Amino acid sequence: MAKKKEILEPYMDVIIFMVTLLVVNYFWKYTVIGDEYGDEVTWFGLDITAPFEFMSCHVAAMVYWIVSLFRDTAHMVGEHTIRFDSGSATTIIWGCSGLKQMFIWLCLMLTVRGNRTTWLHKLWYIPLGWICCHIFNILRIFWIALIIEHHPELFHLMHDYIFKYIFYAMLFGLWVLFVEKIRKE
Q1: How high is the pLDDT of residue 185?
Q2: What strand order describes the sheet that includes 46-47?
Q3: Long-range contact pairs involving 128-132 (C-beta distance under 8 Å, separation at least 24)
């Protein structure tokens, strides 16, 4: 048994990362329920719509502002939709708020092994990760919006595959930085 432990030890941080990522994703998927337009988001039956509504409106406003720096063909329709003169539009719904990724980040950081000093570093690194998630989410939706202005057929590829996995790669990169450079054991 000790031999197995020695073999797995160099990989334990990555194993913990992967298990945490899978567990948190499935926990979120089956406990946070919302319709496509975010009229109501619930967690174990409790209405948690307000933070999702706030964040999706904020993200939409920020994306619109950035798009407006590069295009005069974008128009804000309501609080969540950016419409282009080309006829394409994107709606930032509750699932695009970035809150799921921030929750995943929190759980990933809480499961990082370490001592008391590690926890002190987590106190500033967790909020830094949230800021990175928020900025990346805004940039992700900005790039998707620019792409779909003239190529709306690429929305699902960009949203569901390309940028989704780039987001997870960014989380992994932040986690690696913490584990390899910041964590003190």
Answers
A1: 60
A2: 32-34, 41-43, 46-47
A3: 129/102, 129/105, 129/171, 129/174, 130/102, 130/105, 130/106, 132/170, 132/174
Residue type, 144: I
How many C-beta atoms surround the C-beta of residue 102 within 10 A? 21
Average pLDDT of 83-92?
95
pTM as predicted: 0.91
The residue count of the chain comes to 185
Domain boundaries, the chain: 14-182
Q: Quick check: 76 and 57 in contact, CB under 8 A?
A: no
